[in-house]
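Whiteboard transcription, Tuesday session. T.W. wrote the C-alpha cells on the left side:
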C-alpha cells in the first residue's frame, strides 16, 4: 500500500473549464464517416443514413465539439465536392489515405449530424492544395445569411439559415513531410495570415487556429510555432497541438510517462506563444487547441495506413484499445484540465473505428472501446472551475520522464451545484493507494454522490463485439467523505472519479 495526499482550496483556481476541452475528431478516413457515423441501409440508420446506434453512443460519450473533415484528408479536399445533389457529387482519389472518396457525406450532412446531437462543429480549411480564396468562399457558403451567390447556393441546397460555424482550423499539420503540399513555417505563416484576414472579413465573429507542430518530436518543433505565430499572431486565436501516445517499449510504467510529457508539451508551447507576444509588445494571449490526441501505436504499419486498389472506406488504423490505454487517456484528460487556463479546446482523435472510442461493424453492432469510459466520465462530470491540485505522492523514475508521481489528479468544482469532482489515476502497478483529499473551503457538510473506478487486473484486457464490457466502470466501495476530507483506496493501475456535493 502506498499513501498520497491531494489538497485543493476553493480560492486557488486554475481556470473555468472550457467545455470544448471534451471534443472529438471526425475525418474522412477509413471507416470513421462511411460505416461509422453514416451508413444508409444499416438496420439502425435513420432516414438520413445516420447510424442511430452510433448517435446514441456519441451522446453517451458526450463530446462538446467535433473537428471535421480532416486530418491529412483536408489538405486535398474540395469542399464544393461535398455539397449539393448527391447524384452529381464527384468520386475522387483521396491522396492522403489512398482511398476513393464518394462525397456522399459532406458539409451539410455533417452539420445536420452535429445539430441532431447538439455538438458544436469545428471546421478545417484546406491550405494544402488550396488557399485563401477557397477558404473565404467556404466561410461565405456556410456563415453568410444570404443575398450572395455562395450563401444563396447553400439556401438552394436546403439550408436557409447560416451554419454559423465559429471555430476554424487553418489547415492541418502543415509542417509534416507526409502532408499534401507541405509548407515551410514562413510559407505557412504567410498563408495562414492572409487566409485568416479574408475569412474574418467575411465573418468577424469566427475563431481561428493556426497549425502548430505535428508532434512534440518534429525536428522543427518550437521554431515552427515561433515563425508561424510571428506572421499570423494578430489574426489567430489559437495554436494547435497534436500528440499520439505510444507504448514503445511495452512497459506500462514507461507508457504512463507520456502523461507528464504532454504537460511539458503544453507548457513549452505556452512559453513559445508568450515569447512571440513579448517580442510584439502585446498583452494578447494565444490559446491552445489540442485538436488531435489519443493513444495510437498498435495499428501503425503501412498495411494499417493504406490498402491497395483505391478502396472505398477501407479498414484503416482500427486500433483496439486495452486497459492501460484507457488509463493514459484518463491521464491526458487530467493534464488538459490542469492546464485549462491555456488549453481551451481539444479533440480526441478520432470518434469511430479510426483510432476511435466507438467501434462498429458494417451492417452490424457498435460497442465501446476501453478509452470510451474515462472520456465519457470526464465530459459528464467536468463542469466548473479547475482547482490547483497540490499532490504529495511517492514517485518513480522512467526513461520517458525522470520523476513521475504515482498519483495523477485533477479537481473540478461547480459553484452552481456545489459539486466537486476528483479525477485520479493510481499509476502504481502493484500497490493499492490510500488517498487522503482535503477540499479546503468547499463546505463541511458533504454527500458522496459517485465513487467510480475503471480497473482490470490485466493491463492488456480489451473490449470486443462479443465481449463489449470486459473493461467497464464499476463502483468503488472504499471511498468515504467526512467533512472536508475524502478518503479512498485506489486499486493499482486504476482510473477513478469521485463526485461529492456540499449540502
Ligand atoms: O488521425 C489520423 C491522422 O493523424 C490525421 O489525419 C493527421 O492529422 C495525423 O497525422
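and on the right, the sequence the group agreed on:
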Amino acid at each position: 500500500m502506498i499513501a498520497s495526499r491531494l489538497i485543493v482550496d476553493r480560492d486557488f483556481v486554475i481556470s473555468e473549464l472550457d467545455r470544448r476541452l471534451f471534443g472529438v475528431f471526425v475525418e474522412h478516413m477509413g471507416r470513421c464517416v462511411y460505416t461509422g457515423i453514416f451508413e444508409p441501409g444499416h438496420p439502425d440508420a435513420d432516414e438520413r443514413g445516420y447510424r442511430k446506434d452510433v448517435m446514441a453512443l456519441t451522446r453517451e460519450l458526450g463530446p462538446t465539439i467535433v473537428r471535421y473533415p480532416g486530418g491529412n484528408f483536408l489538405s486535398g479536399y474540395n469542399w464544393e465536392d461535398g455539397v449539393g445533389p448527391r447524384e452529381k457529387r464527384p468520386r475522387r482519389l483521396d491522396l492522403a489515405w489512398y482511398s476513393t472518396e464518394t462525397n456522399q457525406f459532406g458539409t451539410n450532412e455533417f452539420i445536420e449530424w452535429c445539430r441532431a446531437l447538439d455538438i458544436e462543429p469545428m471546421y478545417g480549411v484546406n491550405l494544402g492544395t488550396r488557399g485563401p480564396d477557397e477558404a473565404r468562399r467556404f466561410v461565405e457558403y456556410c456563415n453568410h445569411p444570404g443575398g450572395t451567390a455562395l450563401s444563396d447556393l447553400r439556401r438552394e441546397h436546403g439550408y436557409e439559415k447560416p451554419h454559423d460555424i465559429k471555430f476554424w482550423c487553418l489547415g492541418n499539420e502543415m509542417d509534416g513531410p507526409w502532408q499534401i503540399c507541405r509548407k515551410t513555417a514562413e510559407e505557412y505563416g504567410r498563408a495562414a495570415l492572409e487566409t485568416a484576414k479574408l475569412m474574418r472579413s467575411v465573418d468577424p465573429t469566427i475563431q481561428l487556429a493556426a497549425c502548430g507542430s505535428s508532434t512534440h518530436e518534429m525536428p522543427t518543433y518550437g521554431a515552427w510555432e515561433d515563425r508561424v505565430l510571428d506572421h499570423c499572431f494578430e489574426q489567430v486565436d489559437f495554436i494547435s497541438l497534436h500528440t499520439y501516445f505510444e507504448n514503445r517499449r511495452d512497459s506500462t510504467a514507461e507508457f504512463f510517462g507520456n502523461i507528464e510529457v504532454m504537460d511539458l508539451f503544453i507548457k513549452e508551447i505556452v512559453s513559445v506563444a508568450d515569447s512571440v507576444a513579448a517580442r510584439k509588445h502585446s498583452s494578447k494571449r494565444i490559446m491552445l487547441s489540442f485538436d488531435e490526441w489519443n493513444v495510437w501505436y498498435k495499428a501503425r504499419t503501412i498495411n494499417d495506413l493504406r490498402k491497395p486498389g483505391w478502396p472505398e472506406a477501407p479498414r484503416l488504423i482500427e486500433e483496439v484499445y486495452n486497459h492501460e490505454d484507457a488509463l493514459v487517456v484518463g491521464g491526458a484528460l487530467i493534464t488538459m484540465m490542469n492546464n485549462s487556463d491555456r488549453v481551451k479546446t481539444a479533440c480526441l482523435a478520432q470518434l469511430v473505428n479510426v483510432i476511435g472510442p466507438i467501434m462498429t461493424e458494417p451492417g452490424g453492432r457498435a460497442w465501446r472501446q476501453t478509452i470510451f469510459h474515462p472520456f465519457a466520465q470526464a465530459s459528464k462530470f467536468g463542469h466548473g472551475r479547475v482547482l490547483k491540485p497540490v499532490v504529495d505522492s511517492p514517485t518513480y523514475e522512467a526513461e520517458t520522464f525522470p520523476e513521475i508521481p504515482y498519483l495523477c489528479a485533477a479537481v473540478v468544482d461547480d459553484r452552481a451545484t456545489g459539486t466537486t469532482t476528483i479525477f485520479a489515476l493510481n499509476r502504481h502497478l502493484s500497490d493499492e493507494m490510500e488517498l487522503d483529499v482535503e477540499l479546503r473551503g468547499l463546505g463541511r457538510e458533504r454527500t458522496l454522490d459517485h465513487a467510480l473506478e475503471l480497473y482490470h487486473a490485466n493491463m492488456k484486457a480489451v473490449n470486443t463485439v462479443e465481449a463489449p464490457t470486459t473493461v467497464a466502470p464499476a463502483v468503488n466501495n472504499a471511498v468515504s467523505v467526512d467533512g472536508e476530507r475524502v478518503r479512498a483506496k485506489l486499486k493499482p493501475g486504476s482510473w477513478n472519479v469521485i463526485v461529492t456535493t456540499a449540502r
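Someone added at the bottom: The radius of gyration is 23 Å.
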